[in-house]
Each structure stands twice: as C-alpha cells, then as structure tokens.
Amino acid sequence: LLARQPSHQDLHWLTEFARLVPEARFSFVCDNLQHFQSLLQSSATRADSTTPGVFIDIDTGMGRTGISPGQEATRLAEEIVQQNRFPFRGLHVYDGHILNEDYQQRKEAFLDAIAPLKQWLSDLETMGIVPEYVVAGGSPTFQCVAECTSWHCSPGTSVFWDAGFGSRFSSYPFEPAIRILCRVISLQDSGKVCLDLGHKAVSAENPIEKRVFFPGFPEMKFLKQNEEHLLVDPGTAHQLRIGDILEGIPWHVCPTVALYNHLRILDRRGVPVDQWDVVARRRLG
User: Fold this and answer.
1) According to the 3-state scheme, what is the secondary structure of 109-127?
2) pLDDT digits over 46-65, tens only?
C-alpha cells in the first residue's frame, strides 16, 4: 500500500511493479474526487488481476492528507465503486497526531477521533459499500487499533524503534534496533567534544537535544550541529579521546535510515552478519 496520493508517474511505476510481482496486491490511497478522476483519465490500460487497488485516505484530525468522513467522502467512495479501472480495497486511516504518553489518554483520543468514521462506515454499509480492509493507526496507536477494532494495524517506527518514541512510549516492549557509530574528532580546551555526527548523519528536524541519544552519556548536553559536526558537552569527568567511538540512537529513525546507503546487520554478539541496501537512497528527483 503506497500510503500517499500518487502522481501520474507514481501510478505508472506502481502498475509496472504489480505486473512484475503478480502474486502480490498493490494499492494506493486517494482523498480527492478530482484527483481520482484525473488518474482515471491518465490510465487508459484496461483493468486486470494485477491492477493496483485504491484505498480512500481518511483524515481523523491530523490535518495533513485525507478526506473527512461525510458527504464528500461518500461521493468519492461511490465514484471508486462505480468505475471499472481500480478495485476498491478499503480505507487508510493515519492518526499521527495522537501522541499522548499515557495509554488510557491515548486510547480515549483514538476513540474520539474514529467515532465520526465509524458512523460514516455504518452509513456506507447501508448503501452496500463495504471496505475490504481498514488500515489504521501508527506505532503510538497500534495497540488501540488491535484492541478496539477488527482493522489492520500499520505501525512503522516499531520496525526499528528510536529514542523519540522510546522515551514517550516506554510501556511498549520495543528495543531500538538501530545504532549510529560516530567518532570523537576534536577535543576543546573547555572540555567540549566534537563528533563527526552532522546533519548528514542523523535526522535534524527536531531541536538539537532531540536528534540523537547516547546511552553511555545520558546527561550529555548538545551545543551545536552543522553538516559534518556535532559539538557536545559530555561533562567534566569524561575520559573521551580523539578516535573514540560512540554509539547513538537516532531520535527519529525513519528519515535517518534514508541518509545511509547500507545498514550493517549485527548478531546478538555484535558480529556483522549481513548488509541491507537502503533502496530509498536510489529514488529519482
């Protein structure tokens, strides 16, 4: 499931992928009737068993993409069901705005957010439109989805986990699977330390103190970051020397992974056993 609205070129690529892997089912999301009609006009190929399906992207409060449950969403659903090009697969419901640290509060926010959707779903079913799948939630709310509905969970960050979600959702039994190795490249007279961990090495959209976490230095202060450098104050009692290696856990793992060509895979003893290519690095502009 391509969880964003495709351009015409995206849809062409997705269709080609579907033909290359006929044993899998490919789908995309759409939240706009005009956009869907433009995709229909641009795709003259007749539908077959490999044709990508479509999920309606539903907005339950995040305000990024998606259509709100209601009349416009109903018209979009009717159009998708009535056309003979892309099979209607279901609904995609992402709620990345629900970030309450307390689980009960998070669950209440989740239930409040999906209440209008559930009512709209009931109305759809009376019209004979029954989604095959409802794919819902992210990592913070996947437990809510699993406990409260028969929907399909879609956690993403849980694959690798990171310091951001780890600190916010400590009750989840996930362990960070990603470490960034960096080195001490300069020692300042003031006791400050410079590491080779710049913007190009770790996702930098968060405030500087929420970009990387060093388990061995929980009190480390972050002072300045540039493209190639991270200046830190590890405390006056540190014993760091030039060339020392530090292991950092990214605060936001998703965009951090895309900064690397490969991931080196270690076993439980710390021995390298494999290497994974990061395919996202080869995307076209």
Assistant:
1) HHHHHHHHHHHHHHHHHHC
2) 778 889 999 999 999 999 99
- The amino acid at residue 153 is C
Which residue, 121, 173, 116, is CA-closest to 142?
A: 173
Task: Report pLDDT for 58.
Answer: 98
Q: Parallel, antiparallel, or unpaired: how do β-strands 230-233 and 152-153 relate? A: unpaired
- Cα distances from 43 to residues 25, 155, 180, 204, 282, in angstroms, run 18, 31, 43, 39, 26
What residues contact 158, with CB distance under 8 A and at least 6 apart? 139, 142, 172, 174
| Torsion angle of C-alpha atoms 11, 12, 14, 15, degrees rounded to 10 | 110
Q: Hunting for tokens 């960096």 — which residue is that?
A: 182
Q: Report the SS3 class of residue 61.
A: coil
Q: Bridge partners of 232?
A: 193, 222
> Which amino acid, 183?
R
Distance CA 51, CA 41 (A): 15
Question: How many CA atoms does the CB half-sphere of 184 hold within 13 Å?
Answer: 18
Nearest C-alpha neighbor of 135 from the set 54, 199, 64, 18: 54
pLDDT for 149 equals 86
- Distances in Å between the Cα of 239 and the Cα atoms of 193, 209, 213 are 11, 22, 18
Own/partner pairs, 72-75, CB within 8 angstroms, 24+ separation:
72/33, 73/120, 74/120, 74/123, 74/124, 74/127, 75/33
**pLDDT band of 36, cuts 50, 70, 90:** very high
